[in-house]
Specification:
This protein has about 325 residues and is an alpha/beta fold. It is built from nine helices and eight strands. Helix content is about 40%, strand content about 10%. An eight-stranded mixed beta sheet has the order 1-2-3-4-5-6-8-7. It is an enzyme of class 3 (hydrolase).
Length: about 325
C-alpha cells in the first residue's frame, strides 16, 4: 500500500506543477511593518549636517519615517533592486519602491524628463527590476504620471507608452509574485475617473494589485479616496488602490510645483479611507522642479528649507 500512497503523492505534485505557482502571499502579511531607508535623501542630509539647526527636526519628522525609494535609469538595476529589497527582507520589513524610467518621462510637465532611451531598453530595465525583487515581499508604484500625462503626446506615442506599461505589469506578475504592484493613476484633479479607468484597463491593471493616486501631489486623503473609488467603479474589477499622503496635510491650493503652505500628511499605514495603504511615495523636501518656493532647486534634489516648510505647514 505504501507504493500506492507514494504514487498518489507524485501525481499530486505533478498536477500542482502543471497548474502553475501557488497563489501569492500578501507582502503585508509576510512582513512586520514598513521599511525605513536610512539612506533616504532627508536622512542622509540630516546625518551629513549635524550642526545645522534644521537637521534634528528633519530627521525626526521625515528621515526616520518609511518613504518610498525611486529608481531610474541604472545599467545594473536588477542588482540595485535586489540589494535594496534584500536589506528590507533581512529586517522583516516591507519596502516601497517606485519604478520611474519610462521613455519620455514627464513629457508634458518637463521638470523630471529622462527615462530609458528606447522601448527595448525599457523592457530590459523593467524586467530586470521585477527579477531583482523575485519572491521577496515588496510594494511597487509603476511609473508615476505616465498614464495621466497624455496631453502633449501623439496617439502613436500614447500607444507605445501603454504597451510598455502593459509589459511592466506582466513582468511583475511573472517575476515578483509576492509584490503588490500599482499602476499610477494621476490625481483627483487631473484625468476624469472614467477616462483613467479605460487607460488602466488598457495598461494591464488586471495583472497587478491595483493603482496609486496623488503621487507627488497635495489633494487630501478624502478627495483622493473619492476619486479612487470612482475609478474602481468604472473598472469593475475589484482593483485596490493606495494614496500618497506625503504632502497632503493641508490639501491642494491649485499649484503642483513646490507650492507654499503645504504640510506633511499621515505617515505610512496599512488601510485608511478604503485604501490598501496610505504611503509616503514622494520624498518630502525633494523639489518638484525649479519653481514655486524653490525656484533654483532642480527636480529630484533635496532642499532642507522645503522640508522644514512641510513640517511647519508654511
Amino acid at each position: 500500500m505504501w507504493w500506492t500512497v507514494r504514487l498518489l503523492g507524485v501525481v499530486t505534485l505533478l498536477l500542482v506543477a502543471a497548474a502553475g505557482p501557488a497563489t501569492a502571499a500578501s507582502p503585508i502579511d509576510l512582513t512586520s511593518g514598513f521599511y525605513v531607508n536610512t539612506n533616504s535623501l532627508p536622512a542622509t542630509w540630516a546625518r551629513n549636517n549635524p550642526n545645522d539647526s534644521r537637521a534634528a527636526r528633519i530627521q525626526s519628522s521625515i528621515g526616520s519615517k518609511p518613504i518610498a525609494r525611486w529608481f531610474g535609469n541604472d545599467s545594473d538595476i536588477g542588482s540595485t533592486v535586489a540589494n535594496y529589497t534584500g536589506a528590507a527582507d533581512g529586517n522583516d520589513k516591507l519596502p516601497v519602491l517606485v519604478a520611474y524610467n519610462i521613455p519620455g518621462r514627464d513629457a508634458c510637465g518637463g521638470h523630471s524628463g529622462g527615462g530609458a532611451g528606447t522601448v527595448s531598453a525599457y523592457r530590459t530595465w523593467i524586467s530586470s527590476f521585477a527579477a531583482g525583487i523575485g519572491t521577496k515581499p515588496a510594494v511597487v508604484i509603476i511609473e508615476p504620471d505616465a498614464l495621466a500625462d497624455f496631453g502633449c503626446m501623439t496617439q502613436s506615442q500614447i500607444d507605445e507608452r501603454v504597451g510598455m506599461i502593459l509589459y511592466a505589469t506582466q513582468m511583475f506578475q511573472q517575476k515578483a509574485p509576492n509584490t503588490y504592484a500599482y499602476l499610477d493613476a494621476g490625481n483627483s484633479g487631473w484625468v476624469a475617473a472614467d477616462v483613467m479607468a479605460s487607460r488602466l484597463r488598457s495598461a494591464g491593471i488586471t495583472n497587478v494589485r491595483g493603482f496609486s493616486v496623488n503621487v507627488s501631489n497635495f489633494y487630501t486623503t478624502s478627495q483622493s479616496a473619492t476619486y479612487a473609488n470612482s475609478v474602481v467603479g468604472y473598472l469593475g474589477t475589484g482593483s485596490k488602490f493606495v494614496i500618497d499622503t506625503s504632502r497632503n496635510g493641508n490639501g491642494h491650493n491649485g499649484e503642483w510645483c513646490n507650492p507654499a503652505g503645504r504640510r506633511l500628511g499621515v505617515t505610512a499605514q496599512v488601510g485608511g479611507s478604503g485604501a490598501d495603504m496610505l504611503l509616503w511615495v514622494k520624498t518630502p523636501g525633494v523639489s518638484d522642479g525649479p519653481c514655486g518656493i524653490a525656484p533654483t532647486t532642480p527636480a529630484g534634489e533635496f532642499n532642507p528649507d522645503l522640508a522644514i516648510r512641510l513640517i511647519d505647514g508654511t
